[in-house]
Amino acid sequence: MRSDKTIEVVVKQELCTGCGTCVSMCLEDAIEMVINYSKGIYVPQLDNDRCNECGICFDVCPGHSLDFKGLNVEIFGEEPEDILLGNYLNCYIAHGTDYDIRYNSASGGLVTTLLIFALEEGLIDGALVTKMREDRPLEPQPFIAKTRGEIISAAKSKYCPVPANIALKELLKQDGAFAVVGLSCHIHGIRKAELLDNKLKEKIVLHLGILCSAAPTFLATEFTLRKAKVKKDEVKGLDYRGEGWPGKMRIRLRDNEILLPFHDYWNRGFSSYFFSKRCRLCCDGINEFADISFGDAWRLPEVAEDKAGASLLVSRSKAGEEILRNAESQGKIELKRVESDKVLQSQRAMLLGKKSAVGANLFAFKLFGSKVPTYNLQLLKPKRSAYLRAVLYYLYWRLNIASKRLLWRLI
Length: 411
Hints:
Layout: H1 7-12, H2 21-25, E1 31-36, E2 41-46, H3 56-60, H4 68-76, E3 90-96, H5 99-103, H6 110-120, E4 126-132, E5 140-145, H7 148-153, H8 168-172, E6 178-182, H9 184-196, H10 198-203, E7 204-210, H11 218-227, E8 237-239, E9 248-252, E10 257-261, H12 262-270, E11 292-296, E12 311-315, H13 318-329, E13 333-338, H14 340-367, H15 384-399
Parallel strand pairs: 4-6, 6-7, 7-11
Antiparallel strand pairs: 1-2, 3-12, 3-13, 4-5, 8-9, 9-10, 11-12
């Protein structure tokens, strides 16, 4: 029995990433993801009557620890030479050739295009993806997509907490091969679960990872709606991205809709320390355990005038490289190989934040007596200014400033 090693411990220490892995891997169906409305995040809720204290939920949890060295050796056979990019084979700028998919996705429609290609080629039987719920349009719905239409319904970024890995439970019940799509925390949870469950490892043949600086809480969406003078119960549908690149937020109401340019809402709320929680202790923004990592090609002159959208790709495995080459050969995507310094040019602030400034955050949390995750990873030395920001972030976190709606006018 391991009563001190359940997901409850991770929640109490405020290290939960909200990925949902524990829900699917619990053999007793004793865990449910619920929304903490004060903090605007998902947290696992343990049914102690059903729990047999086996410790599996703790073992698969990426929130309290992640063995970067061990996982790199397990997945890629070696530790990475590049601490910022992780193990990789090639870097690309790419986009899908179906204009409708490309224009109505976050950045080039690559994830959607590759999933459809893999499905139609028989490489996979389904994909773990996320869409927004029809009955509760401000909440995400992870599910296993098995048709072209279902994959398209899950296109575009979701700038809110997503417990994507709760859908692993559905995946495990089905026969066939599957792809999974997620942020770094989701892929971390899946990789840890694969170490314990060989059946899961055999079923997942493709891991598609999204670059992520921090996932905004539900409070960021509420803040944006309030600025637009929209009540939450008036929203009939919400798309965080789409309408070309960099895109717009589309808020659908009963009789009309509101379009907000990407930078208007992202720079004035969504990127704020106020509206991020556990993410600021994460040291993997580039999703280095995916087969392919996907992100926006910010600040690259090659796509500066491209309003339809393009993705920056980091191919890491043979499986990832093969599907890219095959999709290109059949005209489904346009692929341009670039040097790794293009990734650094595009994502430099995020990469340094995750491999350098995060060290200051970890230091500040430990200084004030809070638990921090362990990574088995040598981080880069933070700048002195990062320590001041780390203390401010700790105060935001500990005081839950974002929930103080009266302060929102100051943001």
